[in-house]
Amino acid sequence: xxxxxxxxxxxxIAKVILVLITVPFALFGVDSYLKNAGSGAEVAKINGEPxxxxxxxxxxxxxxxxxxxxxxPALLDQPEFRSALxxxxxxxxxxxxxxxxxxxxxxxxxxSKLIVSLPEFQKNGQFSQEVYDQALAVNKFTPNRFExxxxxxxxxxxxxxxITSTAFxxxxxxxxxxxxxxxxxxxxxATLHSADFLTQAKVSADEIKxxxxxxxxxxRVPEQVRIEYVAFSNNNLIxxxxxxxxEAKDFYQQNAAKFQGDEERHASHILITFGGKTxxxxxxxxxxxxLKVLAEVxxxxxxxxxxAKKYSQDPGxxxxxxDLGAVKRGLMVKPFEEAVFSMAPGSISDLVETEFGxxxxxxxxxxxxxxAFEEARSQIRAELMFQKSQMKFAEEAEKFSNTVYEQSxxxxxxxxxxxxxxxxxxxxxxxxxxxxxxNNEKISSAVFSDEVKKDKRNTEAVEIAPNTLxxxxxxxxxxxxxxxxxxxxxxIESSLQLLQAxxxxxDQGEKLAVSLNQGHEDAALEWTSPVKIDRSNLQGLSExxxxxxxxxxxxxxxxYVGAAxxxxxxxxxxxxxxxxxxxQLDAAAKEAHASEYQAALREEYLQAYLKTLRxxxxxxxxxxxxxxxxxxx
Length: 633
Fold this sequence. Notes:
The chain is α+β, with helices and mostly antiparallel strands. It has four domains: 2-166 and 617-631, Orthogonal Bundle (Triger factor/SurA peptide-binding fold); 184-217 and 486-579, no CATH class; 223-231 and 376-479, Chitinase A, domain 3 (Roll), CATH 3.10.50; 261-369, Roll (Chitinase A, domain 3). Strands 7, 12, 13, 14 and 15 form a five-stranded antiparallel sheet that branches. A four-stranded antiparallel sheet has the order 17-5-19-18, sandwiched between helices.
């Protein structure tokens, strides 16, 4: 909860930055999701208590806003991310139920002590009521709302602390774990590649035929069709649209705001806040102070920067003389934006009231600006042509669909009526057809229906993309069939040889591991240069090799162990030296290791507790809603 205060306590304008993070996700994600599913729809239910689409959507907004600069946004659309986020919400609901069941309480005194101790609200080492009021006002929290949220956080912490405090382990067990973690082993590897055994791998004709007979499905060609199709899109209509100069000028005048996106204005301001209060007396006091500051500014406009440093209550810009940098439309609260974009460079505004207080604004520079009509003419004509093509498509789409249906024995009438070309495909399976038409299963199912495939009738017109309709017709078809043995036998032979070569490599590797542990060296083996590894520093080796190396009995060195390689070969692992890294650690490092161990143990206890709560709860998840992409933005 305090992340909000910490994140936004630096400047009133930070709220505007938050809008940049949250609004796009709200517009393109949650809004459409709520329209489709309804804000009351339930993504999950815990003992009858719902997690609504609205709650889940807000959690997605918050998570994506917080993470968008730290990770690939595409990863946040993955099912694993959604499931993890839902698990977090479920855990919060379960903990809230535990708070209620256990009768946990936080007294007003406990809450007060915590708040006054927080560094976010301190000035010169002491709690400042002024800083507290300003921070809450900037973040749009009332004192009651903020204290309620802090009380809830404390209650959750009580539950967590009650569980994690039981996570105790002896120093002996702790040191044993740390010794294992810090131990280092000198390791080298030798690889037996399966390709080196291919010449020894012999596969008979009978084995190849037996594999073919036993694995019929591997060699079956699915049912296929060749189709002809016609696609009708608004793209077909764009070139036929005309736009007059009068239409373009009207559009330019009616949509002036659309052409102002590149304009930037460099501004500074002095902010006098309401002191965290919203009553008339507080506003009047703030206005009186702001008018005095405004009078001083108008008397000495060249001293704006010094006056801002002296009086401005915006902690993020005051020390910079009120400088806000370059701002664009859509970033500021409306009254502030209207004032900034109505001013001339070098001018100073009268008082501008916003929810944050009273502003005195100085505009220093204007960059960009609204392009003249001649500059925007091409862009406007293109946009109007596209708009007209969409409207024309909407009018013609029904005619196209009706023609395809009513004259179902041929696609030519529909193509001729709309000046389209009938195109043909090669042989395609059901899956190929769907993939060809933008992964559209509907048209694939239609093509392979008896009415279309056997009776040679047109499919209905199917929308495969916005403003794009496709109708298809089967030219010829062929049933599912098995590939002839002669066609696939060479491929089967190669596969069986590779499998046999892998087995030969594995058998040889296992024999060598036994022989090496008995003290018999093999000069033919090519070992890599030894590297010193621990459980967190693999020195380029795979995690599988690291785990095998640390599982190896090192009572006698060198020690050898083997493991199957990913390419079907075999890896021999030699451990030639073991070092006790624990003894090399200084006291500070050992203490840090011990703290990490204890933190991991506490986390394990907490997760086990949450798993128990969940196991004893009735949790229902609406998988269809959870997987929907339109709730992620």
